[in-house]
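INTERNAL TRANSFER SHEET
From: sequence group
To: structure group
Subject: Arrestin-like N-terminal domain-containing protein

Please process the attached sequence and return the structure record in the designated field. Keep the field labels unchanged so the import script can parse them.
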Amino acid sequence: MSTASLPSYSPTPEFFQSPVYTAQPQPHEHRLALANGLHPSPRGDFVKQSRTGGVSLRLLQQDDNADFPEYGCGSTVEGVVNVTKADGVQSVEVKVEGFLRLKEIAEGGTTSATLCSEKRTLWTKDDASPAPCPASLSFSLTLPTTFSDSKGSYPLPPTYEVHLSGLPGFRANIDYSVSVTVCRGGRSSLFGLGNSANVARTPSRPFGLGNTTVFTPFIYLPRTRPAVALPPPLHPTPQGFQATSEWKLFQGTMQSRQRGGQDIISKLFLPTSRIFCLNQPIPFHVTFTSSAFSLAAFMPYGPIESLLSPTRQYTRIDLLRQATCDVRNTVVDGTKTDMWRVDRIGEGVFKHAGDGPDWISFSGEIRVSSEIKVGGFKAGGLHIKDCVVLSMIPPDPKKSPFKELRQMVPVRLTTDGWSLAPAFGTSEWSVPSNPDDYVEAQPELGYYPQ
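Return from structure group:
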């Protein structure tokens, strides 16, 4: 085909050309949403030396100032073993281990489970070769994502420690570690007997004598985030707050103790997903409905300061964590032998949001304690779960015009906030937003790698 038959092309009109993109919005633009970028991997090293200084364990991609190494779900433990004293070295091994240990105080019951255990031999002495142990040996071990015991299979749980003081009580620990062992004189028997050639070359030692082990715990922290963003706040209607597809209603009753008094209906509104980032405040709305007389009697016990209650609020909203430990996994006289403790890990603050003839509304936020680093999970006989509790506990129940109120709503916490980013990157996970399967049932860790 001749070039004469080719069609002619005219320049693309200006309105069809691709726009110029900038990192920040132009004066005529505004940002609709901002996606969190992938978290960059740390570039530092964590180094642990042996007491004698002859062996060091160097773990890569760690924060320079970290007290312990840290890894996430499916992470690879990468490092280097440096051996500066190679005399008599027979082998070099590295091991990654994790254990779940449950102990019952007073009753004396204990149970344990191996969460992970992988050993790798980095170097072994070859009798046919006089070559000494290399001064530097690299290794790479990938952490498993699950573990199994006699009860079933579970996602690998995070590093955790909890105990209940007193009698009876319990202690639960989830620990992970990485260690390297440099074996010397490994061919010698317990009594120092061996091949005459070996004895002449290397002095005979009892088994294990002269071995060097470098050990360090590490933190296992699988990262999580909600699958959906938090909804915009509700606005009161002429009847107070109303439920929407994004805000779920949880209703309770504060029974009146006064003759002829009307009960107060409490309406707690939480985001429908009930999955929250532990580093971000948890929003909520509350509406109390009843007769004007009952609402007036309730105000001294309400969630904000009043002339009748200037220093203490008897209506509060908290985030509670229950840790349940079941060491024996049995039933005695129809009662399970598990034990638990409950801690307040967050406290809410109320603000008046509106009122009417037969209702009064409040809005607020619950802030999670900075000491909380992981969400709920279940592993073996240890179960950690969280809930939001709206309560009204009068100081003197006999004199109070209302009986005690306690509303409990299960929730889940994540390590990271919601993001537009389509994938987390290494060691990050997403929690689905099905409240029935993932909140009320409180299943095992439901995290799935991206």
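Handover comment: The chain has two domains: 44-220, 247-449. Helices lie at 196-201, 292-298, 435-440.
Transfer complete.
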